[in-house]
Amino acid sequence: MSTARSFFLVAFSLTFAISAPALAQQVQQAAPPPGSPAATITIPGDQLPPPPQKFGGKIERDARNSTPFWPSRVVPPKGAPNVLLIITDDAGYGVPSTFGGVIPTPALDRIAQSGLRYTNFHSTALCSPTRAALITGRNHHSAGYGVVAEQATGYPGYDSIITKDKATIGRILTDHGYHTAWFGKNHNTPEYQASQAGPFDQWPTGMGFQYFYGFMGGDTNQWEPGNLVRNTTAIYPYQGNPGWNLVTAMADDAIDYVNRMNALSTDTPFFIKFAPGATHAPHHPTKEWVKKIGDMHLFDQGWNKLRETVFDNQKKLGVIPQNAKLTPWPKDLIKEWDQLSADEKKLFIRQAEVFAAFAAYADNEIGRVIQSIDDLGKLDNTLIIYIEGDNGTSAEGQPNGTPNEVAMFNQINPSVEEQLKYFYDVWGTDRTYNHMSIGWAWAFDTPFSWTKQIVSHFGGTRQGMAISWPAVIKDKGGIRSQFHHVIDVVPTILEAAKIKQPDIVDGIKQSPIEGVSMMYTFDASNANAPSTRKTQYFEMFADRAIYNDGWIASTKVLRPPWVTAGVKLPSLADYPWELYDLKNDWTQAEDVAAKYPDKLKELQALFWKEAEKYQVLPLDSSVATRLILPRPSLSAGRTSFVWRRPLTGTPNGDAPSLLNASYVFKADIEIPQGGAEGMLITQGGRFGGYGFYVLKNKAVFTWNLVDLKRVRWEGTELTPGKHVIEFAFAYDGLGTATMLFGDYSGIGKGGTGTLKVDGNVVATEKMEHTLPFILQWDEALDIGSDTGTPVDDNDYAAPFAFTGKINRIALDIDRPKLSPADIKRMEEAARAAGDGPSADAGKMGSAEPQVSSNIGLNLVEKIQLRIDKREGCRKDAEAKGLGMVDRVKFVQECVRR
Questions:
Q1: If DSSP codes are grouped into helix, strand and coil, which group holds residue 275?
Q2: Pairing of strands 462-468, 116-122
Q3: 3-class state of residue 564 by DSSP
């Protein structure tokens, strides 16, 4: 062969190789034949994943005589839209401007103006349950989430496990060729499966989402989220990055994802679930947004005036009927604004401004994500579903609000005076884990009554929702008032994408989707069509309701949602019921149970039928007790633990708990020449937890009692070489088992801590009381460094890695055991009080503001004072035979005296 011919053949080969991808792209545009590299296929979807495609080529002994055949790439049906599913957190119907609120939400306004507003859309009244229903299309009990993951119990409707017969919308769309991603809050992984040991099948990536960037659990510190992960790997992007905030970071990540998918696979649609932590506590907006909202003076006239303003706005916008009634203010539970002192008003206005700034800030970042889709020219064929809140606004901030939600869950809160003095100027910054007063929560649920946790009244379940799909929805700015529920979102997306529910997924027969599609409402001719959802049950903590064709039967609220313990409730069968005719009473303002007793009986019977059908039974009214009940975890049944090298990121649900127990830490370490410092072992952080560390070559053990008091043990300087340092705590109480008898006396007791170095006692101190319920939940158990916030900012800054060598850290826990005499005594006391052995009745919880005195008083001394005084008041109230509302009022006044 000549040199010229050889050169020509080589050049031709190179040209063909270089141009082959471009050639394949040209062929793809012209309906590529089956078996070609660019071939695609749309699957029936009965079975996921689809069966392997048959080889359609020819195979001979010699490849030159054979015909290749590539499996076709699975793609969604032609015209399937992109989907952006947005759900915010803890925001009631009266929060956003789109539904009459005073807080500006231009991104939600944009979706409403280019699409439809839904005024009769409902959640389950609590975080995990709503989100489980949202991604499965099944009722929350059917999906295993009768309560939040942290309260899971061993019943199918409450075990926090989404079983394999309920494939998520992420899994279904992924197998049909969508790009799928989830950003933000994930509250649908069992607490006891959230560690790096997995299993990961109940994580977003295990439930069918190809990409996840967000936090694990109910809430997080937006400035320093210790529970942030990418896919299944813990990440800490805030370290060394002052001013970093998760709300902006997750929007940035979502925008990057949309652009990346568009660049790599332009014609493949995406499905994104975007779930910011706003406006769940802690309320952490940037200072710029706090100033913007503060300058607007939206809340200066108080919560009663706010309700009137929002109610008027709602009528003007047409998002409530003109004949709707504003439900009355609960004067027996919450003070009216004019009854507050000047200090209370000052503090509460600040709380509301920071909450509003958080809502506006999150909406702004959501707007950036929407705009990024528009910038790519993809908005016209993008179905955007924007749900404001996964339940009503939260009243878990207690009457005074709180600078630290962790403190609130431990039944303690500083006074208004203390909050003004120590926390007012840093409210919403990284120095608080803040929540607002219950008065604002009630006002932000206007025009309805009640709040988050309550399913029997719409303040807990009515969410403002807007849907846009410019290519399909032409009734721009329209309003839809059909009754629908969060379980209806999945079937709506599937119908829009022309995808059916699969019969089989991974060989497992699928349970029927329980929701119905809302897509019929997209047509302007159906603006006033009857709802396709005729019946919907509601249940949470035994509070319950049943909707049926324009009527709703609701149990009377017997436990205010800011009271999590200490309520004596009647038998579940004895709850009083109310009845509302929603066709004539849109806000549940007039109970007509006495007028229509037969209708009430009919609906009560229907509730029990639905309850049996959807795994609602057994009903359980307990709240706080469920937080500390035993459940599966990596530490369940264990009392001894050993770590031999650094390990970070073990979440609370899998970490050994030191609460209400005796324990001993032993750390075998080596100190180099020149000394060392750093973290040995820690759990929790700035807002509640402990740390065992070396500081300036001295051993230190610190208990942070929810940022109100720190108890500290410190040793002498360590010499270079090997040392064994030990911290032992001897607990004085009987432990959590007393709660099974309605007795809280075993928890939160004190004890004595002793610090030793090489067997020698170097510090001993009595802790009068301990934390009874929970440590800071968004931070992990860490060995060798601290991944979140410090337990004492005066001592160190994270990550504070240990600069010596850890040979071994051991922990032994000795949990108290009740003696037969203890059991007999508490059984008799429970019987005398009328409390059953498993009742959630104790001595810590009421509607009154937290009792407080000097900030220097030991944290749980305050708890004990509160317990002692309330117990006497409670007994007096019971002796008078007062009803629930009168009893709460009596105890409030009694405790204040």
A1: strand
A2: antiparallel
A3: coil
Distance CA 609, CA 601 (A): 13
Region of 379 (left: φ > 0; alpha: ψ -120 to 50; beta: rest) is alpha
Mean pLDDT in residue range 574-603: 98
pLDDT value of residue 894: 64
Other C-beta atoms lying within 10 Å of the C-beta of residue 353: 27
Distance CA 654, CA 688 (A): 17
Answer positive or negative: Cα dihedral of 136, 138, 141, 143.
Answer: negative
Contact between 128 and 391 (Cβ < 8 Å): no
Task: Measure CA 104 to chain center.
Answer: 23
**Per-residue pLDDT tens for 93-138?**
999 999 999 999 999 999 999 999 999 999 999 999 999 999 999 9
Phi, psi of 853 (to 5 degrees): -145, -140
**In contact, 276 and 362? CB cutoff 8 Å:** yes
604 alpha-carbon distance from chain centroid: 31
87: phi > 0 → left, psi -120 to 50 → alpha, else beta; which? beta
φ and ψ at residue 360, rounded to 5 degrees? -70, -40
Structure tokens, 17: 């190789």
| Phi and psi at residue 609, to the nearest 5° | -65, -45
- Residue whose tokens read 């309605």: 742
pTM given for the model: 0.89
> Residues for the chain: how many in total?
897
* Exposed e or buried b per residue across 307-345, where buried means at least 16 C-beta atoms within 10 angstroms of its C-beta: bebbbebbbebebbeeebebbebbeebbbebeebeeebb
Q: What is the DSSP letter of 522?
A: G
Residue type, 801: A
303, two tokens: 């919560």
Q: Which two tokens stand for residue 568?
A: 């004596």
**Alpha helical stretches, state H, 226-341:** 246-264, 287-294, 302-317
The rounded distance, in Å, linking the Cα atoms of 99 and 445 is 11
CA distances from 548 to 61, 325, 359 (A): 69, 21, 33
Element (H, E) at 579: strand 577-581
Tell me how crowded residue 638 is: count the other CB atoms within 10 A of its CB.
11
DSSP H helices in 66-125:
106-114
pLDDT digits (tens, 9 = 90+) for 871-881: 556 556 666 66
Alpha-carbon dihedral sign for residues 360, 361, 366, 371? positive
Residue spans of beta strands (DSSP E) within 225-304: 228-230, 233-234, 270-275
Can you tell me the distance from the alpha carbon of 276 to that of 278, in angstroms, rounded to the nearest whole number?
Answer: 5
Q: What is the pLDDT of residues 472-482, one digit of tens each?
A: 999 999 999 99
For CA atoms 655, 658, 664, 668, the dihedral sign is positive
Cα torsion angle, 185, 190, 196, 200, sign: negative
User: 880, 893, 883, 885: which is closest to 849 by C-alpha?
Assistant: 893
Evaluate whether 430 touches 221 at the Cβ level (below 8 Å).
yes
- Helix pair 127-136, 489-497: axis angle to 10 deg: 30
CA distances (Å), origin 66, targets 20, 33, 53, 309, 478:
20, 17, 19, 77, 60
Q: Phi and psi dihedrals of 164, rounded to 5?
A: -70, -10
Spatial separation of the C-alpha atoms in residues 670 and 667, rounded to whole Å = 10
Q: Is the pLDDT of residue 525 over 90?
A: yes
Q: How far apart are CA 651 and CA 782, in angstroms?
A: 9
Helix (H, G, I), strand (E, B) or coil at 119: strand
Tokens (6 digits) for 759:
């067997």
Dihedrals phi, psi of 48, to nearest 5 degrees: -125, 135
- Amino acid in position 717: E
Respond yes or no on whether the N-terminal peptide bond of residue 81 is cis (omega within 30° of 0).
no
